[in-house]
Amino acid sequence: MPGMDFSIEIIDLAGARVALFDKDGLSLPNASGEDKLLVNAKIVDYRRPVTLWMPANTSCVAGDIHTVDDRYVIESIRESHNTAADAGGAMNIGVAKGTVTAANSTAQHSTAINLAAAANTQQNVTISTQTTLDAGDRICVKNVTNTTNLAGASVTIVLKRVP
After folding, report:
1. By C-alpha distance, which of 102, 92, 98, 87 is closest to 134?
2. Torsion over CA of 79, 82, 87 and 91, rounded to 10 degrees?
3. CB count, 10 Å around CB of 63?
4. Residues 88, 31: Cα–Cα separation, whole Å
5. What is the pTM of this model?
6. Which tens digit of pLDDT belongs to each residue from 36-54?
7. What is the span of the domain harbouring residue 140?
8. Measuring CA to CA, which residue among 106, 141, 110 is closest to residue 125?
9. Are 152 and 55 in contact (CB under 8 A)?
10. What's the pLDDT at 62?
11. 28 and 68 part of one domain
């Protein structure tokens, strides 16, 4: 259609531009990896995984784990561990804006992650509060309890870029 740009940009999972094509499918010069995934000037389906590795129970503490560089929502949270924590072992993932501390961050799920669950089993956490994060907002671990014996815990948070 006259006057419309039907270009498409292809970005790999690390965020680097792989290709940029014009409306005729021709590669465009000067493609920059700094640009966002755009199709018809709209941000499209860009996801960024953030993984927190806690090799021992002493490293499972409340605090900031990632500061975002753009607008995102948390799409999913997964956790698994090699050795389970004591009964009642749990933690939450929150979002902190401005000067809010990790302990006072907004939890993104209503049921705590069960650190005493079966070892070597992935837990998919249900997101109950989908807060939009802006550049500079932080993802936090909060409300960590009873982590004695916990070892080899890994939490992956998948961020989805939003306009």
Report:
1. 98
2. -30
3. 13
4. 51
5. 0.72
6. 455 555 555 578 899 999 8
7. 47-161
8. 110
9. yes
10. 87
11. no
